[in-house]
């Protein structure tokens, strides 16, 4: 099960592992053509629902994946999303997340809003609410919901850097991206502003991935 599959990039990787079945949880019904193309002819379906309330049976999944969803959610929303992941997973099932993390030396965000200096600046630039937290807070979010974190990895924050784009999109995809930036000055200005903001706070941000296992006693 994947929360927020978007255009299906992660879905394609998951399906390459030949799961018995794949379910994408996507609240938006528009712009699904690319995702539908990835899932066509495969043992897969998309459920139109919020990640915090999938409507699926408890214990019906053995793996839940989410990328950047929790970072873009409020503290209350992210707790609800993690609780739903715990509910739909069978005991021993795995929950994998890929998010933004604050460095330990960065100022602590507000406990109620989850916002701090870094998140306010990033949110202002990308026009979407972003509330990264420190590694210990990500772990606590998972353990409080009934998970045990069994693996954690971090990487430097390199979003929108050319080398990262080439690695993610491939040479052809990067060339297409660069062409679009040349043809669309307003989009180029926004992307460059986002990259400059990420660079300005690169010492305070990192990418983090965690894999957590649902405890047998969790229902």
UniProtKB/TrEMBL annotation:
GO molecular function annotations of the record: S-adenosylmethionine-dependent methyltransferase activity
A Pfam cross-reference name: Methyltransf_11
Domain Methyltransferase type: start-end pairs: 2-97
GO biological process, one term: methylation
Superkingdom classification of source: Bacteria
Key words of the record: Methyltransferase, Transferase
Xref: InterPro entries: Methyltransf_11 (IPR013216), SAM-dependent_MTases_sf (IPR029063)
Annotated protein name in UniProt: Methyltransferase
Lineage summary: Bacteria, Bacillati, Actinomycetota, Actinomycetes, Propionibacteriales
């Amino acid at each position: 099960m994947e929360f927020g599959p978007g255009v299906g990039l992660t879905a394609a990787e998951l399906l390459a592992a030949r799961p018995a079945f794949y379910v994408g949880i996507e609240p938006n019904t528009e712009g699904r053509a690319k995702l539908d193309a990835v899932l066509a002819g495969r043992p897969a379906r998309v459920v139109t629902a919020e990640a915090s309330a999938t409507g699926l049976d408890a214990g019906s999944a053995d793996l839940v994946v989410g990328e950047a969803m929790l970072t873009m959610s409020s503290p209350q929303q992210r707790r609800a999303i993690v609780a739903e992941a715990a509910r739909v997973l069978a005991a021993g099932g795995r929950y994998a997340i890929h998010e933004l993390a604050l460095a330990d030396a960065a100022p602590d965000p507000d406990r109620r809003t989850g916002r701090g200096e870094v998140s306010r600046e990033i949110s202002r630039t990308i026009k979407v609410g972003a509330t990264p937290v420190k590694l210990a807070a990500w772990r606590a979010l998972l353990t409080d919901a009934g998970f045990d974190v069994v693996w954690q990895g971090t990487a430097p924050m390199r979003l929108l850097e050319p080398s990262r784009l080439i690695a993610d999109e491939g040479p052809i995809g990067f060339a297409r991206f660069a062409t679009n930036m040349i043809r669309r000055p307003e989009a180029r200005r926004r992307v460059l502003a986002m990259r400059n903001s990420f660079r300005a706070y690169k010492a305070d941000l990192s990418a983090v991935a965690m894999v957590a296992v649902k405890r047998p006693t969790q229902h």
